[in-house]
Design a protein that fits this description.
The mean pLDDT is about 90. This protein folds into three domains: about 70 residues, Winged helix-like DNA-binding domain superfamily/Winged helix DNA-binding domain (Arc Repressor Mutant, subunit A, Orthogonal Bundle), CATH 1.10.10.10; about 130 residues, Nucleotidyltransferase, domain 5 (2-Layer Sandwich), CATH 3.30.420.40; about 160 residues, ATPase, nucleotide binding domain (Nucleotidyltransferase, domain 5), CATH 3.30.420.40. The chain has about 400 residues and is α/β, with parallel strands linked by helices. It is about 40% helix and about 20% strand. The protein contains 13 helices and 16 strands. The strands form four sheets. A five-stranded mixed beta sheet has the order 6-5-4-7-11, sandwiched between helices. Helix 4 packs across helix 5. The protein is globular and about 65 Å long. The structure holds zinc ion.
């Protein structure tokens, strides 16, 4: 007879090591006393688990100096400087940003390659990722080892295979990007691919502006527009993992042409190209050109200000639709939409009030992300860290 479902002591220990490491990862540094309270384990068990993680080369302990409180200070547990790191890559249209990210979410090193109109072919993007792996390894502690590679792309992704089904602004369709990456990077490094907005909301939920919020939408505004959604504390992915393509909901079938092939998508009213066109600027959407619109709007340039307000009105309608369907506690507006919120919050709120339903529209909080433009990058690191956090012993 086979006995199933009984956790052996070693399995319990490994499970608890994962829980403890996850707490350190979420907070960066945490005291033994806090760990004892959060994990509901005895002080001696916490002490033994910390000793195990220290021996595995994952955490360090230090005794804080100073402080006014009497008694023995609780030891602080934090990530080791030469501990493992994730390689995170954010493939955007105009640049590919890579970073080595340590346990605790600290960016240890960063490598940015401008790609002008985009890495048009996925193999080119894969080569840039390979270059980043080598470049970053020179800049981290020589003893540190990478655990895997997480890649964020502005498109729909089949998470299991890493195939990019459709990234309209990169003009990628059914590209086996995960396989291409696996062919070029060192074979010992597992590769994971995810959608930028999905990863952004993951990072903000873990350690950003949605940390204590279990119903949240992250609306990402870059050249493309998409949503990462968490409902009841869990990511909403949909049947094939492609949920959240808010940017391609059609507002007006006779509206402006969209990169996806349809007309009048949300993206053509609130994406970066729309903002630049409304401001009368015939330039490529880059961080600089988008920042210039907001700076000029704040300095009194009427064309720029009017463009931002027009986008704000359409953005409010988009948020109202999300609020009607999902009733989120918080909507984070990222990328260029953060700038729209900062300059024209009143216009957005007015539009949400006009088009939103009932109590949901009054309770929703509109915020900018805490992690700024790094949210997708930090979310991509989570893909690479997941195995280590589940079983710190097994992935050594
Ligand atoms: Zn579209």
């Amino acid at each position: 007879m086979t006995r199933v479902g009984v956790a052996r002591p070693d399995a319990i220990r490994r499970h608890n090591l994962g829980l403890l490491l996850t707490q350190v990862h979420r907070d960066g540094e945490i005291t033994r006393a806090q760990l004892t309270r959060r994990l509901h384990l005895s002080r001696s068990t916490i002490g033994a688990l910390v000793a195990d993680l220290t021996e595995l080369g994952l955490v360090d302990e230090r005794v804080p100096s100073g402080g006014k409180r009497a008694g023995r200070p609780s030891h602080v547990v934090g990530p080791r400087a030469d501990g493992p790191y994730a390689i995170a890559v954010d493939v955007d249209i105009t640049h590919v940003t890579s970073a080595a990210i340590g346990i605790g979410g600290e960016v240890l090193a960063r490598h940015v390659v401008a790609t002008a109109n985009g890495p048009r072919r996925p193999r080119q993007a894969a080569a840039l990722v390979d270059e980043a792996v080598r470049e970053l390894s020179k800049r981290v502690d020589p003893g540190a080892r990478p655990v895997g590679i997480g890649v964020s792309v502005p498109g729909t992704v089949s998470r299991r295979t890493g195939t990019v089904e459709f990234a309209p602004n990169l003009e990628w369709r059914h590209e086996a990007f995960g396989e291409m990456l696996a062919e070029v990077v060192p074979p010992e490094l597992p590769v994971y691919v995810g959608n930028d907005a999905d990863l952004a909301v993951l990072a903000e939920h873990l350690r950003g502006n949605a940390r204590d919020c279990d119903d949240v939408v992250y609306l990402m505004g870059r050249i493309g527009v998409g949503a990462g959604i968490i409902v009841n504390g869990r990511p909403l992915r949909g049947h094939d993992g492609h949920a959240g393509e808010v940017g391609h909901n059609v507002v007006d079938a006779s509206g402006p042409q969209c990169h996806c092939g349809k007309r009048g998508c949300v993206e053509t009213y609130i994406g970066e190209n729309a903002l630049l066109a409304l401001a009368g600027r015939n330039v490529l959407p880059t961080q600089e050109s988008i920042a210039a619109v907001f700076a000029d709007a704040s300095a009194g340039d009427e064309a720029a200000a009017s463009a931002v307000r027009t986008v704000a009105d359409a953005l409010g309608r988009t948020v109202a639709s999300l609020v009607n369907v999902l009733n989120p506690e918080r909507v984070l507006l990222g990328g260029s939409l953060a700038g729209v919120l900062e300059f024209a919050r009143d216009e957005i709120v007015r539009s949400v009030d006009r088009f939103g339903m009932g109590a949901s529209r009054h309770s929703v909080q509109l915020c900018t992300p805490d992690l700024g433009d790094d949210s997708p990058l930090l979310g991509a690191a989570e893909l690479a860290f997941a195995d280590l956090l589940t079983d710190p012993v097994g992935t050594r």
